[in-house]
Amino acid sequence: MTETSAADLVEQNKRHWDERVPINAASTFYDLDGFRAGDEDFDPFQLDEVGDVDGLELAHLQCHIGLDTLSWARRGARVAGLDFSAPAIAKATELAAEIGVADRARFVAADVYDAVDALGAAAFDLVYTGMGALMWLSDIRRWARTVAGLLRPGGRLYLVEIHPLTDVLDDATGTTVAGDYFGRSARTYELAGSYADWDAQTTHNTVTEWHHTLGDVVSAVAAAGLRIEFVHEHDVIPFRRYGTLVADGPRFRQPDPALRVPLLYSLAATSGWIPSPSLRPSAE
């Protein structure tokens, strides 16, 4: 794929996401009233794996309307959110003011690969990327190098993402293989509405995704000079990815414990090959 064609596909994706910002913001899926009241959508394992963020400089890449970003700010981090959608960034900035954390939250509209220029080189203790982000990136190695450029020595990447195996299992039950796990060609398709409101009327429905295997992601992070701390796989997901999944609190899982497959994974890696017992910046 040429640089020009990749850029065209990204621009098409941006139009798709720009259109869905007001739809998602108005949806019960995002529940902004609950968020304003203090709700957050982290899994317990995320909070355990990330640990205390109070006083840290945190960058959230592909932050959409910033709910996770602002949740980290509520927990004491100084946050910078980045997304390629200007309407999403405008909404995130508005929410920061509404919940009273504008003094420690900033949001920037930029391409993820330009994050070092947009946010600052070696400026962060923690780079966070949440679910449903990496599939929109054509170059996973370039993304990993970007993350490495954002981190201070001893800083940390924390990624929680939809497991790539879910891309190739059957939509009905999620228990049989229905696609090529190792296929890495861009996939362009039509997607009307939004995962937050499938009945919403939309115009920009053509999107392109890129499939990255778990090995691709781990290898890209390692090649960028980051030390892998762990890769954990999880059997829950925040939406009904397959028709047979059953609710387990705010998450969904397979109904039969004998047929579990990984639905999410989390990864942590440290910059500078320095295992750090604490992410807190040293006292001046």
Describe it.
- By secondary structure, this protein is of the alpha/beta class.
- Helix content is 29%, strand content 22%.
- It contains 8 helices and 11 strands.
- The strands form 3 sheets. The protein has a 7-stranded mixed beta sheet with strand order 3-2-1-4-5-11-8, sandwiched between helices. Strands 6-7 form a two-stranded antiparallel sheet. Strands 9-10 form a two-stranded antiparallel sheet.
- Helix 7 (140-150) links the parallel strand 4 and strand 5 (151-162).
- Helix 1 packs parallel to helix 5 (86-98) and helix 7 packs across helix 8.
Lay out the secondary structure.
Elements: H1 3-25, H2 32-36, H3 44-50, E1 57-61, H4 67-74, E2 78-83, H5 86-98, E3 105-109, H6 115-119, E4 124-129, H7 140-150, E5 151-162, E6 187-190, E7 206-209, H8 214-223, E8 227-234, E9 246-248, E10 251-253, E11 264-270
Parallel strand pairs: 1-2, 1-4, 2-3, 4-5
Antiparallel strand pairs: 5-11, 6-7, 8-11, 9-10
Helix pairs in contact: 1-5, 7-8
